[in-house]
Design brief:
single chain; 308 residues; alpha/beta; Rossmann fold; 10 strands; globular
Length: 308
């Protein structure tokens, strides 16, 4: 397996990104090779752990404003880069990326970090992978905030997703910064778009970016449909706080909050909310999403600040 690693100087002086990288090597069981996974780890180690999982085609830069706010609340805030994204290693061949392999990589990282009593915030593919972790390791999670995400298990997706799927397969050199900017309500600056492009010096580094849309299980015959069905069965037993925080202008995940609210016991009687923003609500309304997370954490500790 050929593994690419983005040069460190690509991450110099990024807009609003003062965070030092941390690295953990995980083993890829299929090849026997080691993969370096990058993550941000801010705030006091004794603080409550908040895990922020990004999706496609972003990286932990997506959470830059939320990292600062949550760590200021006294939480330990951890934001990894998925394999293929950000500072993490990038297998060069699209065929190396499967849904199950990505679950295995992220699971290996979670276990190696030995994270406990975690509040998870997951968006886009951060949910497709993060909810699989919750299903597999429920004892490690204290609560979940699911934002503009889903856990497809073989059912068709809507027209907006199918348009994205078709577009994503139209090129092997997708304009990552432009894609993220187009999926936000606010106007993104050139410096911010450049920061999203930073992990990808050229098209060779974008195998994951191009492959991830094809991995969504949109038919019963699709790889990982049965595994996600099993994950839903496990989530049907998850009774810890589970809050959905979707945004009104995201056509891709519209309505995907309802199955979580009805099928997951921990989601019942929770203050689910609809925030203002596009697909990447971390860019459009980071403060509102932080407030949702902080309210969930506080409810678990006995206090009760108002959520938006």
């Amino acid at each position: 397996m050929e593994i690419l690693r983005t040069p460190e100087d690509r991450f110099d002086k990024l807009a609003d990104w003062p965070y030092a990288p941390h690295y953990l090597h995980i083993s890829d069981q299929a090849s026997g090779q080691s993969l370096r996974m990058a993550y941000v780890d801010e705030g006091p180690r004794e603080g409550h752990t908040v895990l922020l999982l990004h999706g496609e085609p972003s990286w932990s830069y997506l959470y830059r404003h939320m990292i600062a706010s949550l760590s200021a609340f006294g939480h330990r805030v951890i934001a990894p880069d998925l394999i293929g994204f950000g500072r993490s290693d990038k297998p060069a061949d699209r065929a190396e990326y499967s849904y199950e392999r990505n679950v295995a990589w992220l699971s290996s990282w979670l276990l190696a970090m030995d994270l406990q009593q975690v509040t998870l915030c997951c968006q886009d593919w951060g949910g497709l992978l993060g909810l699989r972790l919750v299903a597999a390791f429920p004892e490690r999670f204290r609560g979940v905030v699911a934002a503009n995400t889903a856990l497809p298990a073989g059912e068709p997706m809507n027209a907006a997703f199918m348009q994205w799927l078709a577009f994503s397969q139209s090129s092997d050199d997708l304009p990552v910064g432009q894609i993220i900017a187009m999926a936000c309500d606010r106007k993104m600056s050139p410096a911010e778009m450049a920061a999203y492009d930073a992990p990808f010096p050229d098209a060779r580094y974008k195998a994951a970016v191009c492959q991830f849309p094809t991995l969504v299980p949109i038919t019963a015959q699709h790889p990982s449909a049965s595994e996600n069905q099993a994950a839903w069965a496990a989530l049907a037993q998850f009774n810890k706080p589970f809050v959905t925080a979707f945004s009104g202008n995201d056509a891709v995940t519209r309505g995907k909050d309802l199955p979580m609210q009805t099928r997951i016991p921990g989601a019942r009687a929770q203050p689910h909310c609809m925030l203002k923003g596009g697909h990447f609500l971390q860019e459009d309304c980071p403060d509102a999403l932080v407030a949702v997370i902080e309210a969930l954490v506080a409810r678990g500790s006995g206090s009760s600040p108002d959520a938006p």
